[in-house]
Design goal:
Strand order of the largest sheet: 4-8-7-6-5
Shape: elongated
Number of strands: 8
Largest sheet: 5 strands, mixed
Strand content: 25-35%
Number of helices: 3
């Protein structure tokens, strides 16, 4: 199952510590360096270059259209554009897909605004209009460097 990159401390025979970062998704990514932040940054840069197939309903589309109670195979009718900051589209899909598979609960941040809804889901802040169609904005809640076991 896809997870966020995480770091493991490796103790070498000469007593030196190194860090290995792993990302468990469809393809396993590894990075090894003397500094944990350098490892995390290397994996982060690699994930930003991964492209998703165009002919599928995205995990983000499944989530937002499910909230809107629109069950269609063409999400472009309902989601006009997705804006994301500080995270790649691939990472969004991995995080939301994993959260959907585990039936993670939605945390509503703004539900009473007549024009837009704001939720936290899969460590992401997702903003979308009350009713389709519209623009969906996604950004991470916290830095990936603050998570994981170091």
């Amino acid at each position: 199952m896809p997870v966020e990159p995480y770091a493991q401390v490796l103790r070498l025979e000469n007593g030196k510590r190194r860090y290995r970062v792993m990302n468990n998704s469809a393809k396993r990514l590894f990075a090894v360096a003397d500094d944990p932040l350098e490892c995390l940054n290397e994996v982060e840069q690699t994930l930003r270059t991964v492209r998703l197939p165009d002919d599928r309903v995205s995990s983000l589309g499944q989530l937002v259209m499910g909230i809107w109670q629109q069950f269609e195979s063409d999400e472009s009718t309902y989601i006009q554009e997705v804006a994301y900051r500080g995270i790649s589209q691939f990472q969004i899909e991995e995080k939301i897909g994993h959260a959907l598979a585990n039936q993670q609960r939605i945390r509503w941040i703004e539900k009473t605004d007549p024009h837009q809804s704001v939720i936290e889901y899969a460590y992401l802040r997702i903003t979308f209009p009350k009713r389709p169609p519209g623009l969906v904005t996604v950004e991470p809640i916290e830095s990936p460097y603050e998570r994981g076991a170091l």
